[in-house]
Write a structure and sequence with these properties.
elongated, Rossmann fold, 362 residues, 6-stranded mixed beta sheet, alpha/beta, 6-stranded parallel beta sheet, DNA-binding, 3 domains, 12 helices, homodimer
Chain lengths: 362, 362
DNA sequence: CTGAAAGCGCTAACAT
DNA sequence: ATGTTAGCGCTTTCAG
């Protein structure tokens, strides 16, 4: 198919690999009539290369369709120009969005993004056991994954900078939102509307997943209530498992609560809110006329379903994490051994008013 | 923090890289009292290593917490154990789901997944210009991305096997569904229900994106109509840009069609169907009483919104593509130069009945 | 069954 | 400003 006039390299090429572009730095050097060292310098825009030489090298490289082998250069420099991203596949929307933000930043800086999806407990256990990231990345971003200290220790043993998105990791830098504040914002909106009977659909506070987010959001919910002089009722806090189906079940339970149902419900994620909306529809109840619903996320479909919600910037959190990591890598050479500030960067949330919240029924 | 009793390697380690686990194959060899060649063999389960020796090597490796450097081994073998996945970020759900299927297969075989998101035209152009996958992957999976022959050529020049998911790529192996058949299935369902006035919301057939999927689905729509003796009306085919908002706009337009609105609409994606549902709601129309809606995908939220749809297995398509690729790589050594069969593997679709379709209004 | 040695393609001293 | 050379850590002939 592609006729190769004369084969650049002198040996029989490896069976298959980086492509037909077999030219090596030696070929470029020969063609440009300089040494490989000069080629290396010219290609990386290093000082001490005369403009004329540089041009000649660049031309030769171009003609031979040459690209530096990341393997070879990584082997000597010890940098591999790749970042590992690990996520649990909990909440597709969230993860896809965070990934987009991360990828954009990484690509812009010439870093590869190596993805690890810890879809279930087995994969997760195996991941921490074998640590497949070892020797393969210059840094790691953990997205929406709560880790215990043993797991964090394992990751630390990689010897590369770490950062977390959404879930707090003790001792690790993080990008996230103030979940307590976000929840309070949502619930306060309900209170402002005149609601006093307000339910909450969140995650299991004592479950094995160890997500801390539901804990905070529940705390925010309670705080808002207390501040308004409303006594939180434990029966009005339900577990929706952060899925649409879970949200539906939780809402159904709320509706048949002894002592009357709430007139408004704060759902700790938009997907659960979608499920709650379905429960309402199937119960013949109208939203917001009978029951108000407020979510948290601003999922891409929240607008489509007219869901009032507290928006959080997901791609931005991912992008910020990526930027932080690259910054660490850049500074690693100049600064001391542990330049890490295990600090947290909080991102803004905002209330997005749509049509699932209104005044309580008379 | 982590006390390192005695540093395995003898030279000052590179500033930062594959981690604290600095032990090299030389260290393992020394510890096991064998040569590096034997270590290499033992670790890769090659023949010609006595069980006793193998055990000793394994133990030594374990004690030193040794892992093979993928860079070093890749450099000599020419295999890098990574697969590139490139996708357009068109349809978050689809892409996240496909990615999940791909990742699972790749991980199982010890391959890394290197992600490239071609979010906009700039990134896309840049991608094909610089080909950042070059020398970095053993194969490439293209998800839901239509490519022209120049772009396919560029990818081919990588010299690694290629495969496509969802969108057909001429001359490239692919995993997808029969889009014509899927559309016919959806529309036939509406016809069976008694509908004769059936609209279609799809993508721009002449747009710059060159997606071929909308073309086929539209063809399937027309075929089903024709087969039932119904004359397709061009005014009832609208572009919904494969987004919820686009679907809403298209549905609104359909509703104000001169000569009356359709009683049923086939949406070429579930996300557009969600938008169409919103248009109905805002027009005070009920579904399916006034207008029936059928989608295509079986998006994770389709169930939540009771959407009747034609389901396609997305993760399975991704997984199949990954398996095909690995199979090519495995066979590459034994077979001839181009072992590629640029064949297509079709995946089954099925109608999922829910509550957005019913008999036409009397 | 095991070891010695030659690189893979590149970068980083160290010359010049 | 440019060239020489010694490896980075591993796999792989080729000899034992």
């Amino acid at each position: 198919m592609h006729a190769v006039p004369s084969f650049p390299s002198r040996r029989s090429a490896p069976a298959r690999s980086g492509g037909l572009s077999r030219a090596s730095i030696v070929d470029v050097a020969a063609r440009a009539g300089v040494s490989v060292a000069t080629v290396s310098r010219a290609l990386r825009d290093m000082p001490n290369v005369s403009p004329a030489t540089r041009d000649r090298v660049l031309a030769a490289a171009e003609e031979l369709d040459y690209t530096v082998s990341p393997l070879a250069s990584g082997l000597v420099t010890g940098r591999i120009n790749a970042i590992g991203v690990v996520l649990p596949y909990a909440g597709r929307w969230f993860f896809a969005e965070a990934l987009r933000g991360i990828e954009e930043v990484l690509r812009g800086q010439g870093y590869d993004l190596i993805l690890h999806v810890l879809a279930d407990d087995d994969r997760r256990a195996q991941f921490f056991q074998t640590l497949p990231l070892r020797r393969r990345v210059d840094g790691v971003i953990i997205v929406a994954l709560p880790l215990d200290s043993r797991e964090i220790g394992a990751l630390r043993s990689l010897g590369v900078p770490l950062t977390g998105v959404a879930e707090p990791l003790t001792g690790v830098h993080g990008e996230r939102v103030d979940n307590v504040g976000a929840a309070r914002l949502a619930v306060q909106h309900l209170i402002n509307l005149g609601h006093r009977r307000i339910g909450c659909i969140g995650g299991d506070l004592n479950g094995p997943e160890r997500f801390s987010v539901p804990g905070w959001r529940t705390q925010g919910y309670r705080e808002a209530l207390t501040l308004a002089g409303i006594e939180p009722r434990s029966g009005w806090e339900r577990d929706g498992r952060f899925t649409a189906d879970g949200g539906e079940l939780a809402m159904t339970a709320l509706l048949s609560q002894p002592g009357g149902a709430p007139t408004a419900v704060f759902c700790q994620s938009d997907e659960m809110a979608f499920g709650a909306l379905r429960a309402l529809r199937h119960s013949g109840l109208r939203c917001p006329d009978d029951v108000s619903i407020v979510g948290l996320d601003d999922h891409e479909l929240a607008h489509t379903f007219d869901l009032t919600t507290v928006a959080q910037p997901v791609a931005a959190q991912g992008a910020a994490a990526a930027r932080w990591l690259l910054h660490q890598l850049a500074g690693a050479s100049t600064e001391g051994p542990e330049p890490v500030g295990a600090d947290v960067n909080f991102h803004e949330v905002r209330l997005v008013l749509r049509r699932t919240t209104g005044r309580p029924p008379a």
